[in-house]
From TrEMBL:
Superkingdom of origin organism: Bacteria
Name recorded for this polypeptide: DUF1223 domain-containing protein
Family annotation (InterPro entries): DUF1223, Thioredoxin-like_sf
Species: Chitinophaga agrisoli
Amino acid sequence: MRSFSVFIITIALLGVSAVTTAFLNMHYEKKAIKQIQTMKDNKGFAVVELFTSEGCSSCPPADELLESIQRDNKNKELYLLAFHVDYWDHQGWKDRFSDHAYTERQLQYVNWLRLSTAYTPQIVVNGSAEYIGSSQGEVLKAISAGLSQQSNNTLTLNGRISGNELAVTYDGAGADKKTELVLALVQRSAHSNVKGGENTGRQLTHVQVVRQLREVDINSKKAITLDLPNDFDKNSFELVGFVQDKRDGHITAAARAVLE
């Protein structure tokens, strides 16, 4: 975990007992992934937001966790989002996916969840609880809980591509005036050859990279137009939307748009 002030905590595990503990943890985490894969009759959803950076050496394990969740849970109501924050960009490597808007979103969670600081890697599940991004066991438990909790609200999204624009229509049943619609245009996968900073020389793989973020009044005109990036490909991108309480960050509904 790396905070805004950028400090390093190193834990050395020595001896047979440490090896045994590591083995048991690995076994538990594999079992947890299998449990998510085999869950049936899910009534809920899980919006998983990862705050990460190519400039942070603690982040690749969290990126890999998100990738494994995506790979092994294709048919679940899971909405995975990787926000590349920009406060690592002055540490020797400029993350090409970073945006200050994503840092601002993370700082909003600092306020909502009453945290002392922002850090990477961080995962927030359904806007209600946060974890160190590489804490696989805790993250999977939170996802399982979200999938099992029924929501009374629903969200419908549709997207029509026209040139370099995406016309989005939406409808959120059960949303009140204290909620807003958050839209994220997501690139499903990406690769980067890092040539500076803490991850110098590494080839990093990313999934569900947020390329654009918009907050919309869900009770307004029910339509909005998004500009598409130059490298947009219908088969490589998706649009994720969710309804979020502006008071505490709790997410009450989520959906993935059908792009036409």
